[in-house]
Amino acid sequence: MAKIELDPMLARDCLILGELKFSRLLLMNNALVPWFILLPHTDKTEIIDLPESEQASLLKEINLLSAFVRENFKISKLNIAAIGNIVSQLHVHVVGRDPSDYCWPNVVWGQSEGEPYALEQVKNIRAALAQQLGEAFSRAPE
Amino acid sequence: MAKIELDPMLARDCLILGELKFSRLLLMNNALVPWFILLPHTDKTEIIDLPESEQASLLKEINLLSAFVRENFKISKLNIAAIGNIVSQLHVHVVGRDPSDYCWPNVVWGQSEGEPYALEQVKNIRAALAQQLGEAFSRAPE
Protein backbone atom coordinates (compact mmCIF):
# COMPACT_ATOMS: atom_id res chain seq x y z
CA MET A 1 0.00 0.00 0.00
CA ALA A 2 1.09 3.58 -0.64
CA LYS A 3 2.63 5.28 2.37
CA ILE A 4 0.55 8.12 3.78
CA GLU A 5 2.22 11.47 4.29
CA LEU A 6 -0.41 13.41 6.18
CA ASP A 7 -1.37 16.63 4.42
CA PRO A 8 -0.28 19.61 6.59
CA MET A 9 -3.80 21.06 6.78
CA LEU A 10 -5.28 17.74 7.93
CA ALA A 11 -2.40 17.43 10.41
CA ARG A 12 -3.23 20.87 11.80
CA ASP A 13 -7.01 20.38 12.02
CA CYS A 14 -7.30 16.73 12.98
CA LEU A 15 -6.25 14.25 15.65
CA ILE A 16 -4.96 10.83 14.63
CA LEU A 17 -7.13 8.13 16.22
CA GLY A 18 -5.41 5.10 14.75
CA GLU A 19 -5.30 2.79 11.77
CA LEU A 20 -7.91 0.68 10.05
CA LYS A 21 -6.87 -1.98 7.52
CA PHE A 22 -6.94 0.37 4.51
CA SER A 23 -7.23 3.84 6.02
CA ARG A 24 -5.80 5.99 8.73
CA LEU A 25 -8.60 7.25 10.97
CA LEU A 26 -8.66 10.93 11.89
CA LEU A 27 -10.94 12.98 14.11
CA MET A 28 -11.64 16.58 13.18
CA ASN A 29 -10.66 18.52 16.29
CA ASN A 30 -14.11 20.03 16.70
CA ALA A 31 -16.11 18.63 19.58
CA LEU A 32 -19.29 20.35 18.37
CA VAL A 33 -20.04 17.46 16.02
CA PRO A 34 -18.74 13.86 15.62
CA TRP A 35 -16.63 14.33 12.50
CA PHE A 36 -14.38 11.46 11.43
CA ILE A 37 -12.12 11.26 8.41
CA LEU A 38 -10.86 8.16 6.61
CA LEU A 39 -7.52 8.62 4.91
CA PRO A 40 -7.00 5.62 2.62
CA HIS A 41 -3.50 4.34 1.93
CA THR A 42 -3.32 5.54 -1.65
CA ASP A 43 -1.76 8.30 -3.70
CA LYS A 44 -4.87 8.58 -5.89
CA THR A 45 -7.04 11.63 -5.28
CA GLU A 46 -10.37 10.32 -6.64
CA ILE A 47 -12.39 7.30 -5.54
CA ILE A 48 -13.00 6.47 -9.19
CA ASP A 49 -9.24 5.93 -9.64
CA LEU A 50 -8.96 3.32 -6.91
CA PRO A 51 -8.89 -0.29 -8.10
CA GLU A 52 -12.11 -2.18 -7.39
CA SER A 53 -10.65 -4.02 -4.41
CA GLU A 54 -9.58 -0.76 -2.78
CA GLN A 55 -12.99 0.79 -3.41
CA ALA A 56 -14.50 -2.22 -1.64
CA SER A 57 -12.09 -1.80 1.30
CA LEU A 58 -12.95 1.88 1.55
CA LEU A 59 -16.68 1.18 1.43
CA LYS A 60 -16.28 -1.42 4.16
CA GLU A 61 -14.53 1.11 6.38
CA ILE A 62 -17.16 3.77 5.65
CA ASN A 63 -19.74 1.24 6.86
CA LEU A 64 -17.76 0.36 9.98
CA LEU A 65 -17.32 3.98 10.87
CA SER A 66 -20.92 4.91 10.04
CA ALA A 67 -22.14 2.22 12.44
CA PHE A 68 -19.73 3.44 15.10
CA VAL A 69 -20.87 7.05 14.80
CA ARG A 70 -24.54 6.13 14.86
CA GLU A 71 -24.17 3.92 17.92
CA ASN A 72 -21.92 6.18 19.96
CA PHE A 73 -23.29 9.67 19.38
CA LYS A 74 -26.72 11.25 19.47
CA ILE A 75 -27.23 11.76 15.77
CA SER A 76 -30.06 11.42 13.34
CA LYS A 77 -28.26 11.65 9.99
CA LEU A 78 -24.94 10.62 8.53
CA ASN A 79 -23.10 12.83 6.06
CA ILE A 80 -20.58 10.90 3.92
CA ALA A 81 -18.43 12.86 1.51
CA ALA A 82 -15.26 12.89 -0.56
CA ILE A 83 -14.64 16.52 -1.50
CA GLY A 84 -10.97 17.48 -1.62
CA ASN A 85 -11.20 20.94 -3.17
CA ILE A 86 -8.81 22.35 -0.58
CA VAL A 87 -6.89 19.24 0.54
CA SER A 88 -6.48 17.06 -2.54
CA GLN A 89 -5.14 14.01 -0.62
CA LEU A 90 -8.00 11.51 -0.79
CA HIS A 91 -10.04 11.58 2.39
CA VAL A 92 -13.62 10.66 3.19
CA HIS A 93 -15.67 12.53 5.76
CA VAL A 94 -18.08 10.56 7.95
CA VAL A 95 -20.00 13.07 10.02
CA GLY A 96 -22.86 12.46 12.43
CA ARG A 97 -25.47 15.18 12.26
CA ASP A 98 -28.49 16.08 14.35
CA PRO A 99 -31.07 18.88 14.37
CA SER A 100 -29.63 19.91 17.74
CA ASP A 101 -26.09 20.44 16.43
CA TYR A 102 -24.36 23.76 15.86
CA CYS A 103 -24.86 24.19 12.13
CA TRP A 104 -27.80 21.94 11.21
CA PRO A 105 -29.08 21.66 8.50
CA ASN A 106 -26.12 23.31 6.80
CA VAL A 107 -23.10 21.25 5.86
CA VAL A 108 -20.09 21.32 8.19
CA TRP A 109 -17.65 22.25 5.43
CA GLY A 110 -16.92 25.97 5.39
CA GLN A 111 -18.25 26.61 8.91
CA SER A 112 -15.73 28.58 10.91
CA GLU A 113 -17.01 27.75 14.41
CA GLY A 114 -15.37 24.94 16.34
CA GLU A 115 -14.34 23.78 19.79
CA PRO A 116 -11.27 21.59 20.44
CA TYR A 117 -11.68 18.26 22.22
CA ALA A 118 -10.45 17.69 25.76
CA LEU A 119 -7.79 14.96 25.89
CA GLU A 120 -10.11 12.76 27.95
CA GLN A 121 -12.78 12.86 25.26
CA VAL A 122 -10.33 11.72 22.59
CA LYS A 123 -9.11 8.93 24.85
CA ASN A 124 -12.70 7.79 25.30
CA ILE A 125 -13.36 7.81 21.58
CA ARG A 126 -10.22 5.72 20.94
CA ALA A 127 -11.30 3.25 23.62
CA ALA A 128 -14.82 2.98 22.19
CA LEU A 129 -13.38 2.38 18.70
CA ALA A 130 -11.06 -0.32 20.04
CA GLN A 131 -13.97 -2.00 21.78
CA GLN A 132 -16.41 -1.82 18.88
CA LEU A 133 -14.06 -2.44 15.95
CA GLY A 134 -11.81 -4.99 17.62
CA GLU A 135 -8.86 -6.07 15.51
CA ALA A 136 -10.01 -3.90 12.58
CA PHE A 137 -8.66 -0.90 14.53
CA SER A 138 -5.13 -0.22 15.81
CA ARG A 139 -5.16 2.58 18.34
CA ALA A 140 -2.63 5.42 17.96
CA PRO A 141 -0.46 6.17 21.00
CA GLU A 142 -2.20 8.50 23.49
CA MET B 1 -36.94 -2.40 -5.98
CA ALA B 2 -38.69 0.29 -3.96
CA LYS B 3 -40.67 2.76 -6.03
CA ILE B 4 -39.25 6.26 -6.05
CA GLU B 5 -41.56 9.12 -5.19
CA LEU B 6 -39.43 12.14 -5.97
CA ASP B 7 -39.04 14.46 -2.98
CA PRO B 8 -40.78 17.80 -3.75
CA MET B 9 -37.60 19.82 -3.16
CA LEU B 10 -35.57 17.65 -5.52
CA ALA B 11 -38.44 17.87 -8.02
CA ARG B 12 -38.33 21.66 -7.82
CA ASP B 13 -34.56 22.05 -8.06
CA CYS B 14 -33.60 19.27 -10.45
CA LEU B 15 -34.26 17.98 -13.95
CA ILE B 16 -34.83 14.27 -14.51
CA LEU B 17 -32.26 12.97 -16.98
CA GLY B 18 -33.30 9.33 -16.98
CA GLU B 19 -32.84 6.01 -15.26
CA LEU B 20 -29.81 3.90 -14.49
CA LYS B 21 -30.22 0.29 -13.34
CA PHE B 22 -30.48 1.12 -9.63
CA SER B 23 -30.91 4.90 -9.52
CA ARG B 24 -32.85 7.68 -11.13
CA LEU B 25 -30.43 10.25 -12.53
CA LEU B 26 -31.11 13.92 -11.83
CA LEU B 27 -29.36 17.11 -12.90
CA MET B 28 -29.33 20.05 -10.51
CA ASN B 29 -30.79 22.89 -12.56
CA ASN B 30 -27.71 25.07 -12.16
CA ALA B 31 -25.61 25.40 -15.27
CA LEU B 32 -22.77 27.03 -13.30
CA VAL B 33 -21.39 23.63 -12.36
CA PRO B 34 -21.95 20.01 -13.56
CA TRP B 35 -23.98 18.71 -10.63
CA PHE B 36 -25.60 15.30 -10.94
CA ILE B 37 -27.65 13.41 -8.38
CA LEU B 38 -28.21 9.67 -8.10
CA LEU B 39 -31.50 8.71 -6.50
CA PRO B 40 -31.34 5.00 -5.69
CA HIS B 41 -34.51 2.90 -5.75
CA THR B 42 -34.75 2.45 -2.02
CA ASP B 43 -36.72 3.73 0.92
CA LYS B 44 -33.62 3.66 3.15
CA THR B 45 -32.09 7.04 3.97
CA GLU B 46 -28.53 5.94 4.80
CA ILE B 47 -26.02 4.11 2.61
CA ILE B 48 -25.11 1.94 5.60
CA ASP B 49 -28.67 0.56 5.64
CA LEU B 50 -28.57 -0.67 2.05
CA PRO B 51 -27.90 -4.38 1.61
CA GLU B 52 -24.39 -5.12 0.31
CA SER B 53 -25.60 -5.80 -3.24
CA GLU B 54 -27.36 -2.42 -3.38
CA GLN B 55 -24.28 -0.67 -2.02
CA ALA B 56 -22.30 -2.30 -4.81
CA SER B 57 -24.87 -1.15 -7.40
CA LEU B 58 -24.74 2.38 -6.05
CA LEU B 59 -20.93 2.42 -6.07
CA LYS B 60 -20.95 1.19 -9.67
CA GLU B 61 -23.24 4.03 -10.69
CA ILE B 62 -21.14 6.58 -8.79
CA ASN B 63 -18.18 5.33 -10.84
CA LEU B 64 -20.09 5.48 -14.12
CA LEU B 65 -21.25 8.99 -13.44
CA SER B 66 -17.87 10.15 -12.14
CA ALA B 67 -16.26 9.00 -15.39
CA PHE B 68 -18.97 10.73 -17.39
CA VAL B 69 -18.52 14.03 -15.55
CA ARG B 70 -14.75 13.93 -15.84
CA GLU B 71 -14.82 13.18 -19.55
CA ASN B 72 -17.54 15.62 -20.56
CA PHE B 73 -16.86 18.74 -18.51
CA LYS B 74 -13.79 20.84 -17.82
CA ILE B 75 -13.23 19.83 -14.21
CA SER B 76 -10.27 19.05 -12.03
CA LYS B 77 -11.95 17.50 -8.95
CA LEU B 78 -14.96 15.34 -8.21
CA ASN B 79 -17.08 15.92 -5.13
CA ILE B 80 -19.08 12.84 -4.11
CA ALA B 81 -21.47 13.16 -1.19
CA ALA B 82 -24.49 11.70 0.55
CA ILE B 83 -25.75 14.40 2.91
CA GLY B 84 -29.54 14.51 3.26
CA ASN B 85 -29.90 16.98 6.12
CA ILE B 86 -32.62 18.86 4.27
CA VAL B 87 -33.95 16.21 1.88
CA SER B 88 -33.80 12.89 3.73
CA GLN B 89 -34.61 10.76 0.68
CA LEU B 90 -31.32 8.98 -0.09
CA HIS B 91 -29.48 10.77 -2.87
CA VAL B 92 -25.82 10.98 -3.83
CA HIS B 93 -24.29 14.11 -5.30
CA VAL B 94 -21.64 13.75 -8.01
CA VAL B 95 -20.34 17.22 -8.76
CA GLY B 96 -17.52 18.22 -11.08
CA ARG B 97 -15.46 21.07 -9.67
CA ASP B 98 -12.77 23.32 -11.05
CA PRO B 99 -10.79 26.31 -9.78
CA SER B 100 -12.55 28.37 -12.49
CA ASP B 101 -16.06 27.58 -11.22
CA TYR B 102 -18.36 29.99 -9.39
CA CYS B 103 -17.79 28.90 -5.80
CA TRP B 104 -14.42 27.08 -5.79
CA PRO B 105 -13.01 25.94 -3.39
CA ASN B 106 -16.15 26.11 -1.27
CA VAL B 107 -18.69 23.32 -1.43
CA VAL B 108 -21.76 23.77 -3.63
CA TRP B 109 -24.19 22.98 -0.82
CA GLY B 110 -25.63 26.11 0.71
CA GLN B 111 -24.58 28.42 -2.14
CA SER B 112 -27.51 30.54 -3.25
CA GLU B 113 -26.24 31.50 -6.70
CA GLY B 114 -27.41 29.50 -9.71
CA GLU B 115 -28.35 29.70 -13.37
CA PRO B 116 -30.94 27.45 -14.99
CA TYR B 117 -29.99 25.32 -18.00
CA ALA B 118 -31.23 26.07 -21.50
CA LEU B 119 -33.31 23.18 -22.88
CA GLU B 120 -30.71 22.55 -25.57
CA GLN B 121 -28.00 22.02 -22.97
CA VAL B 122 -30.07 19.42 -21.14
CA LYS B 123 -30.82 17.67 -24.41
CA ASN B 124 -27.09 17.53 -25.13
CA ILE B 125 -26.31 16.11 -21.71
CA ARG B 126 -28.96 13.39 -22.15
CA ALA B 127 -27.54 12.53 -25.57
CA ALA B 128 -23.98 12.36 -24.22
CA LEU B 129 -25.13 10.08 -21.37
CA ALA B 130 -26.94 7.81 -23.82
CA GLN B 131 -23.83 7.61 -25.99
CA GLN B 132 -21.36 7.01 -23.18
CA LEU B 133 -23.43 4.78 -20.88
CA GLY B 134 -25.22 2.79 -23.57
CA GLU B 135 -27.81 0.38 -22.22
CA ALA B 136 -26.96 1.33 -18.60
CA PHE B 137 -28.96 4.52 -19.17
CA SER B 138 -32.60 5.00 -20.21
CA ARG B 139 -33.20 8.54 -21.32
CA ALA B 140 -36.19 10.42 -19.90
CA PRO B 141 -38.58 11.95 -22.47
CA GLU B 142 -37.44 15.41 -23.64
Question: Topology, pairings included?
Answer:
The structure is a homodimer of 142-residue chains.
Chain A: H1 8-13, E1 14-19, E2 23-28, E3 35-40, H2 52-72, E4 77-82, E5 92-97, H3 119-133, E6 138-139
Antiparallel strand pairs in A: 1-2, 1-6, 2-3, 3-5, 4-5
At a glance:
The structure is a homodimer of 142-residue chains. Chain A contains three helices and six strands.
Largest interface, by Cβ-Cβ below 8 angstroms: which chains and how many residues each? A-B, 29 and 29 residues
* SSE topology string of chain A: HEEEHEEHE
Q: Ranges of chain A with pLDDT <50 over ≥5 residues?
A: none
Radius of gyration of chain A: 14 Å
Note down, in words, how this protein is organized.
The structure is a homodimer of 142-residue chains. The first copy, chain A, is of the alpha+beta class and 142 residues long. Chain A has a single domain, classed as HIT-like (HIT family, subunit A, 2-Layer Sandwich), CATH 3.30.428.10. Chain A is built from three helices and six strands. The first copy, chain A, has helices at residues 8-13, 52-72, 119-133, and strands spanning 14-19, 23-28, 35-40, 77-82, 92-97, 138-139. Chain A has a six-stranded antiparallel β-sheet with strand order 4-5-3-2-1-6. The model of chain A has no long low-confidence stretch (mean pLDDT 95). At the A-B interface, helix 2 and strand 4 of A face helix 2 and strand 4 of B. Strand 4 (77-82) of chain A pairs antiparallel with strand 4 of chain B.
